[in-house]
């Protein structure tokens, strides 16, 4: 019985490590959507660029290939945009300043 427990198939002991920094997690997506929802113009653009660059830098530092980093950043951008849409659908609509 002890031998069965110590002998593992190769699939269980060998594998690929996938980098998943916390910067691309759900909490960060929600935080970025909130920030973008309250910022406007150049401030929003500067914030957005800095966040995407920060995530790309984290992924590169973790050893992810550049081609994969681009895909992950695009996925993050899409996730934040979806969160923005959902938050506007579920939240109160802001009053127009032109009224």
Automatic annotation (TrEMBL):
It comes from the Bacteria. InterPro entries: DUF6074. It holds the Pfam family DUF6074. This is DUF6074 family protein. It comes from Rhizobium hidalgonense. The lineage of its organism: Bacteria, Pseudomonadati, Pseudomonadota, Alphaproteobacteria, Hyphomicrobiales.
